[in-house]
Every structure is written in structure tokens, then in C-alpha cells.
Write a structure and sequence with these properties.
CATH architecture of the largest domain: 3-Layer(aba) Sandwich
Oligomer: single chain
Distance between the termini: 43 Å
Helix content: 25-40%
CATH topology of the largest domain: Rossmann fold
Largest sheet: 7 strands, mixed
Structural class: alpha/beta
Strand order of the largest sheet: 5-4-3-9-10-12-11
Shape: globular
CATH superfamily of the largest domain: Vaccinia Virus protein VP39
Radius of gyration: 19 Å
């Protein structure tokens, strides 16, 4: 199917509500049967929209109405009025948009960091589509423990797996800018999410002053592919945050894979968070 017809078909399919029984299956069938390619807008919780690459199977479930409701619930309960949230490794912006869902009502501001040029452009498109200029700041650089430049190794098949940690010497790479989070100033920072494919410890080391000042809750992806351990107890990130009096919250954000999941950290001196989903 040519690009023009694919675009029209996707536009028509956008009007079919995923809440209607059988619609997600029908939409998925049409896309597969006619090899439809391109981008489409998908609603998150019937309010904000995210730009989806239909060819990417790791994204298509969002287009079919399956978004992370546990994360949505967590953010709604743990971001207060006039607060700030940092999304390090924003990717296509799921965490950012779910946090921003409360922005229009509570004046929440989100700071998203995404060094991948293609993904950064998609974030800007989502920002414009949802008219969030007053609530969303998007930066086209990565976070680390130094202000410098680094190689970012690109996974051509799965953009979620692009990383600053070199696992294969011959992988395609881009030269990107990275900065310490401490080089920026935030007001009323309540939460940080870090998902940077193995670079999490360095992001935290570049954010020590910010963390100690605001004592936000911190969600960090644990991925044994990069951590060199299968035990959270032996994880460098856990040891570093323990030095700042952080503990792991007894909460699941919906990912039950022990080798790759989000871990929620909190400081006992910070405000009372609601970890009951």
C-alpha cells in the first residue's frame, strides 16, 4: 500500500474507538493485512494524544488502547499542584504525557530529556498537538555525570534499546550532548523517572544536589542486560540512593519481569507519597 493510501487509512482508523468491542482487533487486522505503514495519533486515557509508529510493535499496543494504567494512577496520586516532574529518557513521551494529564488542572510542569533526534521531533509534535507549550519543556540532550559529549549507540530495530553503554563495538552511533541535571534549576520537584538503558547510575550522580534539595520520589528502570547483576540488592543505583537515605517502595507499576522492571525509590524525609494503586 502506498504512502498516501496508508495515511488516509490510518486517519480513518483513528476514528474507531478502542472502547468498542472488537475494534482493536479489527484495526490490528487491517494494519497487518494491508501492510500499512506510517504514524498515527493515539489517545491516552481519552484526553492527550501520543504519536505512534504503526510499524513498531512495541508502540502499536498504545494505538489499540492499551496504555499503562498503573503508571497513570501512580502519577496522579504522587504529583501535586504546582509541582515539577523530570522524565530522563523520555522516548516517545508516555510518562511525560501521563504526568501532563493533570497539568491543565494542577499547573504541573514536565521536563523531558531525549537525545535521539527522531524521538525528540516526535515529542515536539506531541507537545504541539496537545497544546502543552506552557507545561512541557523538552530538551534534545541526555543526562549524565558530566557536561560533555558521548556516543549514543542506536538500535535500528528498537529505539527503546538505544544506549550510551557500548555493548557491541560495531553498532551505529551518534554523537550527542549530555549534561548534569544539577546544571539546571527546578521548582518544587516531586518526581523523577529515569530509563536510560544502563546509564542510570551516572544520571543520578549528576543529579545529587537536585535530589538532596527536593527529595523527590525516583523511578528507575532495572534492566539486568546493563546492570551486570540479576539482583536489585547488588545494583549500583540502589547502593548510591541508599547513601541518600532512599528506600525501595513496595509497589508494582505493572512490569513483573524480574530482569527488567521499574523500581520506585523514596526518601523518608520527603512528603508523604501515596503508593497505593
Amino acid at each position: 500500500m502506498n504512502q498516501y493510501i496508508s495515511a488516509i487509512t490510518l486517519r480513518l482508523l483513528e476514528f474507531l474507538p478502542n472502547s468498542l468491542k472488537g475494534c482493536p482487533r479489527f484495526k490490528n487486522y487491517i494494519v497487518n493485512q494491508f501492510s500499512i505503514k506510517g504514524y498515527s495519533w493515539s489517545k491516552l486515557n481519552n484526553r492527550l494524544k501520543v504519536k505512534i509508529n504503526i510499524e513498531n510493535l512495541t508502540e502499536r499496543h498504545l494505538w489499540l488502547g492499551l496504555y499503562p494504567k498503573n503508571i497513570e494512577s501512580f502519577l496522579k496520586k504522587n504529583l501535586g499542584a504546582n509541582s515539577s516532574f523530570i522524565d530522563a529518557g523520555a522516548n516517545i513521551g508516555i510518562w511525560s504525557l501521563l504526568a501532563l494529564d493533570s497539568a491543565l488542572d494542577q499547573n504541573i510542569h514536565v521536563f523531558s530529556f531525549e537525545p535521539n533526534q527522531v524521538l525528540h521531533k516526535r515529542l515536539l509534535d506531541s507537545k504541539s498537538k496537545n497544546k502543552l507549550n506552557d507545561f512541557w519543556s523538552i530538551f534534545n540532550y541526555g543526562l549524565s555525570d558530566l557536561n560533555t559529549t558521548k556516543k549514543m549507540y542506536i538500535n535500528p530495530f528498537c529505539h527503546q534499546m538505544s544506549t550510551l553503554e557500548n555493548l557491541e563495538d560495531d553498532r551505529q552511533h551518534d554523537i550527542i550532548e549530555v549534561k548534569k541535571l544539577d546544571s539546571l534549576v527546578f521548582k518544587n520537584l516531586e518526581g523523577i523517572k529515569i530509563d536510560v538503558e544502563g546509564h542510570e547510575a551516572k544520571v543520578i550522580r549528576g543529579a545529587l544536589k537536585t535530589i538532596q534539595k527536593h527529595l523527590p520520589w525516583i523511578v528507575v528502570e532495572f534492566n539486568s542486560l546493563y546492570t551486570k547483576t540479576t539482583s536489585v540488592e547488588d545494583w549500583t543505583v540502589k547502593r548510591d540512593l541508599e547513601k541518600l537515605n532512599y528506600k525501595i517502595a513496595d509497589i508494582s507499576l505493572g512490569d513483573d519481569d524480574p530482569s527488567c522492571r521499574d523500581i520506585v525509590f523514596y526518601n523518608e524525609k520527603s512528603k508523604n507519597f501515596n503508593f497505593n494503586l
